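2024-03-11 09:14:02 DEBUG pipeline.ingest accepted 1 chain
2024-03-11 09:14:02 DEBUG pipeline.ingest length=284
2024-03-11 09:14:03 DEBUG pipeline.predict start
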Amino acid sequence: MTTGLGRRFTRNPGAIIGAVMVLAVLAAALLAPVVSPFRPGGVDLLQRLAPPSWLGGHGGHLLGTDGIGRDVLSRIIYGARISLLVGVGATIISVAIGVTLGVLAGYFGGILDDVLMRFGDMWLAFPFILLALTVMAVLGSGLWKLLAIMGIGGWVGYARIVRSEILVIKQLDFVQAARALGARNRELILKHVLPNAISSIIVLAALQVATNVLIEAGLTYLGLGVDPTIPTWGGMLADGRVYVTTAWWVALFPGLAITWTVMGFNLLGDWLREELDPQLRTQA
């Protein structure tokens, strides 16, 4: 099975490109102190708004410098850490909350199902970005505050998917047989029901990471995300908007980094969706 999955992966150009893109961002985040040519917070006013070295800039700044002489490439490399931390961390929180509530609603049903799903409907009716803006404006900016609000805000999709999967799975013969043999609810959920719904969770999580990267960049761009002293792609975009016509590289390259990361996770998510959905695989 593993060999077949690997063979199908190597035959899918989109999956390979997506994996390479994601691995490149992950490598940059993990190896930032090693591969970064300058300190991300290093200020050099003599090199203020220096163009990329391949455009005639001086000082060895491959992607140029920003308004106070900080190396753009180094800040992009360190910014990958924040984007992945928020993107993956918020997704893990959303999965934990959403899967738990989805299991409770789908497996036990009844009033609990009605209450949880109606609460989920109300949650979806309120625009998440407006909620995030309101909370961050009241509580103030901060990495962990942003991580928490994004994690809590994304639970509904997982809850609804898991609930719908479990409503079908719990009626299958092998689950009924395990119940007849005396298996308790906890054992049925953890060993028989939830493992058969894991594929949908993985696909949604892969796509959600890309969405979270965009949300983090947007909130930080507005000044309501990560602290400005921490190098982030959204913060770099906010700094660079002043120099769009005079020093385009300050905003362009962080924007390309966001595009690169989001595209990589989306390509992987699409491939996972095709692989883990039997109907799509049959059509292919």
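2024-03-11 09:14:41 DEBUG pipeline.report The longest helix spans residues 72-108.
2024-03-11 09:14:41 DEBUG pipeline.predict end
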